[in-house]
Amino acid sequence: MAFSENIKKSFFWSNTIKIGIVFVFFLSIVSLLLNSFSDIFSGNWQAVLEQNFSNQLWKRFFSTKVIAGFVYGVYVSNKNMK
Question: Is pLDDT at 61 greater than 80 in this prediction?
Answer without folding.
Answer: yes
